[in-house]
Amino acid sequence: MKPLREQNFYELFEIPVSATREQIEQAYALAKKTYGEQSLAAYSLFDSEERKEIIRKTHLAYETLSDENRKKQYDRDVLGLAVPEKPPQPAGPVKTTPAAAASEPPKDIAAPVEIESLTGTLLRQVRERRGIPLQEIADKTRINITYFEFLERNQYRSLPPSVYLRSYVLQYARILGLDPVRVADRVLFLVEQSKGSGKRSV
Amino acid sequence: MDQGEIWAVGGGKGGTGKSFLAANLGITLANQGKRVLLIDADLGCANLHTCLGIDYPEATLSDLLTGRIKRIEQAIVPTGITRLGLISGAQDILAMANPKHAQKTRLLKQIQELDMEYIILDLGAGTSFNVLDFFLIADQGILAVLPEPTSIENVYRFIKSVFYRRFRKIAREEAVREIIAQAMDQKNENGIKTPYDLIKQVARMDGAVGELLKNEMYSFRPKLVVNQVRSKDDITLGFSMRSSCTQYFGITVEYIGYVEYDDHVWQATKRRRPLVTEYPMSSSARGIKSVAARLVTHEQLTIDYLVDTAPRR
After folding, report:
1. Which of B146, B151, B163, B243 is the mutation pick for testing A, counting most A CBs within 10 A?
2. Number of domains present in the structure of chain A
3. Domain B5-147+221-309 is classified in which CATH homologous superfamily?
4. pTM above 0.90, yes or no
5. Per-position pLDDT tens, chain B of length 313
6. Which of A50, A125, B4, B93 is the most buried (most CB within 10 A)?
7. What is the phi/psi pair of residue B199, to 5°?
8. Which chain B residues have a beta carbon less than 8 Å from that of A14?
9. ipTM of predicted complex
10. Which residues in chain B have Cβ-Cβ distances shorter than 8 Å to A57?
11. Reduced to 3 states, what is the DSSP secondary structure of residue B250?
């Protein structure tokens, strides 16, 4: 088994990729019970912060796997499974993306921002405003810091294949407190764009 | 089967039903036609014989260890149940509570040469090297837990002790052993909190040993039995503990069943009669039979089980 931060959603839930809706529901219910406030099983191994982190990931896993489209996308981009597909569809406003307007305190960064405006530069600004050093993210995720540097410098062509990249960006966005899936979709879109249309990297 | 399969029942805390489980599992197997030997390895606090309703026998494990008895067969006493033998533990000789490693090895070799299909070791409470070593030697290590905080904490402590003990045996180099010893202390200065951290640290010092430890972690699969279950939440606890162990220790704990809280157990115990003999149809006896069946077939409970027991919504 892998440490939590390296587990994909299926590993986290201990279910196969072919799991039924029912199995996903069960796994989610169990995880909530296992790592929740009243849990007997987890409190002596994980402190309250760690349990919250697990619950957060669990929640994200459930949201992704219980949604047919997002599950497909996840299977393809993170697991690298071939699925009859169409190009990633970046869409909708990102709720928690902070404004580039650099004067507000971090508390106000919940203002919705169009996903279309999200770039590597903006991600760097968000990160700096939250006072999170890039090295810290690299340490936490155990992902090579150069990838994050490329991302924040908008050097999309230098980024690793989307199979890996998606997972990297998901983790990065989560640490920044952004909607991981939306941000990952957007970054993958930017990568596609930088390569010119029609060519896909899988 | 050439050699008997060894099961060891442990779990850290006293009073979680280790002897109860060992005795009743043994009887269940014997009733199914298997040749079974129960060994009370709770050196110093032996009372497995009481669970079987027999008096403290003349010959015990300590006679074997001290050499007063030469052959292991001489230490086996009948239990009144066909095909089920017992080697009782040392009850009073404190010195015997810690036999030397060579003694234990010799003993186990003799045990394995016996014409038995299953050998069930009832381990003592706590996490002494003795207990840990017997647990590690067993083909199937069984952990008895009660659905209460102290018992759960002790089971985790036990799991941690067992495989750190194993780790230390693998690691020959002093520096690596030192790290492993330090890791047992939760507030160690290396910041090692979980076995993952430990393996990472060890791998940095010695890649090959790191690999060994990792393999060890994968192959260590203790079995969990939740005893004295009173609610569906208590049943779910087994799954939650399994998940917590995966996340924290990186090991796979197999949840092999539970035994319901049941007045029959109390009544049988008071009369010094084994539960499965006295009340074979009670819910607790049925629980034990399911556990035995899963141990024999190497199966575990799956989470769908919860849906089957009580429909949700």
Report:
1. B243
2. 2
3. P-loop containing nucleotide triphosphate hydrolases (3.40.50.300)
4. no
5. 467 899 999 987 788 889 999 999 999 999 999 999 999 988 777 788 888 888 888 888 888 877 788 888 999 999 999 999 999 987 655 555 566 777 777 888 888 888 999 999 999 888 888 788 889 889 999 999 999 999 999 999 999 889 888 888 888 778 788 888 877 776 677 777 778 788 888 888 888 888 888 888 878 899 999 999 999 999 999 999 999 998 888 888 999 999 999 999 999 988 889 999 999 999 999 999 999 999 999 889 887 777 654 433 3
6. B4
7. -65, -40
8. 243, 246
9. 0.83
10. none
11. coil
